[in-house]
Amino acid sequence: MTVTAQSHPSTACFAAAPGGEAWDALVIGSGIGGLVTASQLAAKGAKVLVLERYLIPGGSGGSFRRSGYTFDVGASMIFGFGEKGHTNLLTRALADVGERCETIPDPVQLAYHLPGGLEVAVDRDYDTFLADLTARFPHEAVGIRRFYDTCWQVFRCLDAMPLLSLEDPAYLAKVFFRAPLACLGLARWLPVNVGAVARAHIRDPDLLKFIDMECFCWSVMPADRTPMINAGMVFSDRHAGGINYPRGGVGVIAEKLVRGLERAGGMIRYRSRVVKVLLEDGRAVGVKLAGGEEIRARRVVSNATRWDTFGSLVDEAHTPAAERTWRRRYKPSSSFLSLHLGVKAEAIPPGSHVHHLLLEHWQDMEAEQGTIFVSIPTLLDPSLAPVGRHIVHTFTPSAMEAWQGMDPGAYRQAKRAAADRLIGRLETILPGLGAAITHEEIGTPRSHRRFLGRHGGSYGPVPALRLPGLLPMPFNRTAIPDLYCVGDSCFPGQGLNAVAFSGFACAHRIGADLGLNPWSLPA
53, 194, 346, 472 - which has most CB atoms within 10 Å? Predict the structure, then answer.
């Protein structure tokens, strides 16, 4: 998989901010978490430079173009584009730098195709979804309502307060005085996982497996290892703000954040691979690029994974003990085998939903290439494909270990065989798919590692053992002064809305450290 470079500002070498002054902040990587951090800091008046190793912004939240198709790199089931409350983080991040995405509402979050013929489509309307699920499990009507209503309790706590840094005591005090009940309610759920809540209300083993899959579809973990805070957000926001697709593709979000960053006085450089965080007297003072150039700043932010930050950008000798503890608690999630397909329009049955999840056997949920995710974004935005064509983006968890030790010929054969198996399985919900393919891109964990610069091609951390909710997740500050982390390796974890939260939190904490934050809370 390759990406065509787009038109971007000059990437000429410079080591200091305009005017010869030091940068206030350097951000390593232009994933959504890094871009939200950078754009928020620029909006506060900080001098910010983003360094991106690749040709385009967005990381796994980017898009690439091929033969008239605009493909999303990662998933296209996007939260955070609502209009009310405080959980619409992508809407807020763009608005803060004078940008907005036109979005298209998706009437159904996800259509499940599960073992035993269990078919459930999660309707945008909450009561319709509960009615549909209750029709399949009528003996659990009360438990279904109680479980999902509990998720709404968590969501209302989140939605009642501006979501900024939990590492800033002044912010926490102001939020508590504004919404004391919401703060206390949220604190109650921080150490809780979904599985315990589900079992308190539900007994049917198949329904509990369905809730496992409800969690796995976005956290790649079953309910016992999925924090209740995250579930409260996802299981409720899909009905509150809803799933809304950005017109033009998911990559438009990153492009608009870059535009807002530059309008606010920040800068971004492409083809700028950071190889080292510079430390002096134990503090982060800048970075070194692959070509040897050194750039200094008052604060350094890594949007790389924790594994890439500590052990690579910061060598093991300077890796804090807290990071080693974190590695014992968390492991990299699996990467993915992904297919980006251009297909003839007739391959998509009339009335199809945009997003699907397919699993034939419950025991394979967490297995290598077990669960299949499908996105057909052209059902919402036909402009992403040539006339008479659709996009089918499908991906399934796959570990790096399954793709190592192959010579180029064996690697190509393994990709082809895996793609054919995946297409064959998909024909149970998209009959005739294989014969309708007109364009194909096959990506493996090696592709994700190469193009996204992520440890093992991973899409973030998952607990290595059962942990108490979100409490063990690291925040933005690290044990190295003036070095911060942002993205899916930080609280609250994976997903575009989650890393947007991480970006808001990181920018707020740095803003507090640099004396840039306004006194009042966001409206």
Answer: 194
Give dist(CA 236, CA 225) in Å, integer: 19
Amino acid at 232: G
Phi, psi at 328, each rounded to 5°: -75, -30
Q: How confident is the model at residue 2 (pLDDT cuts 50, 70, 90)?
A: very low
d(CA 193, CA 105): 30
How far is Cα 197 from Cα 515, in angstroms, rounded to an integer? 41
The percentage of the chain sitting over the pLDDT mark of 90, rounded to a whole number, equals: 78
Distance CA 394, CA 296 (A): 41
Cα 59 from Cα 85, distance rounded (Å): 27
| Cis-peptide into 492, omega within 30 deg | yes
Q: How far apart (Å, rounded) are the C-alpha atoms in residues 371 and 387?
A: 31
287 contacts: CB under 8 Å, gap ≥ 6: 26, 28, 51, 274, 276, 277, 278, 294, 295, 297, 300, 313
* pLDDT beyond 80 at 15: no
277 close to 300: Cβ distance less than 8 angstroms: yes
Q: Are strands 335-344 and 274-280 parallel, antiparallel or unpaired?
A: unpaired
Confidence of residue 12 (pLDDT cuts 50, 70, 90): very low
Rounded CA Rg of the chain: 22
Q: Where are the alpha helices (DSSP H) in 96-140?
A: 126-136
Q: Which residues pair with 391 in a beta bridge?
A: 342
Sign of CA dihedral 438, 430, 244, 448: negative
pTM, full prediction: 0.92
- Mark residue 134 as left, alpha or beta (left: phi above 0; alpha: psi -120 to 50; beta: remaining): alpha
Work out the average pLDDT over 221-225. 93
Those residues whose C-beta lies under 8 Å from the C-beta of residue 330, and which sit 6 or more positions away, are 306, 461, 462, 463, 464, 472
Q: At what angle do helices 205-219 and 228-237 cross, to 10 degrees?
A: 90
Q: State the DSSP string of 201-235.
A: H---HHHHHHHHHHHHHHHSS-GGGSBHHHHHHHH
Q: What is the pLDDT of residue 491?
A: 86
- DSSP class of residue 239 equals I
Measured from the Cβ of residue 136, the count of other Cβ atoms closer than 10 Å reads: 16
Give strand pairing partners of 339.
394, 442
Is residue 247 within 8 Å of 381, Cβ to Cβ? yes
Write down the pLDDT at residue 78: 92
More confident residue, 521 or 319: 319
Phi, psi of 150 (to 5 degrees): -65, -40
To the nearest 10°, report the CA torsion of 349, 240, 196, 358.
Answer: 10
Type of residue found at 481: P
Query: What is the spatial distance between Cα 325 and Cα 49, in angstroms, rounded to a whole number?
Result: 31
- The answer to whether 403 and 445 have CB atoms below 8 angstroms apart is yes
